[in-house]
Amino acid sequence: MSEVFDRIRDEIAKNDVLLFMKGTPVFPQCGFSAAVIDVLSQLGVKFHSVNILVDPDLRQGIKEFSQWPTIPQLYVKGEFVGGCDIIREMFETGELGQLMKEKGVTLATAA
Amino acid sequence: MPMAAEDIVALIKQGIPDAEVDIQDLAGDGDHYAATVVSPAFAGKSKIQQHQMVYGALGGRMGGVLHALKLTTMAQKP
Q1: ipTM higher than threshold 0.95
Q2: Does the CB of B5 have a partner CB in chain A at under 8 Å?
Q3: Looking at the 3D structure of chain A, how many domains does it have?
């Protein structure tokens, strides 16, 4: 499993905003992943995504790495922020936009 | 592989003894639930930690036999 963990660490280090998801942003294959894509789009955040469906090792590995049993999972600047429910809740309260700003992530949202 | 709502509630209460659990079967298929868990044990913990406590109480079923559980956690009722 350590090899998978290394790959995960590497992805997290390379990408300021990283989403582990089912499917792709254009073609999400799960409603929860789609919901997070929707939030990130509304915020105007540039993000990188990893499709865990095409990689069984990664699919299991990310759950153990984050100690989180479900996908999607969002990382911002190396920190695990949460899954779908938390992301949606944080978006609605404005916390997510705040967190992105605090972490120095550029938001392209129109006013 | 669906799971009964009362089993989910029982497991959460077993893991977090003072928890109040309100559960809804979203799709009526025994597979997509929404639960609100209120417990003083959540006080001072981050959302991630709170959800991890609930997942811990479910003992590995989340993401397995339990496909979808939309979680809302809070230390006290609003």
Answers
A1: no
A2: no
A3: 1
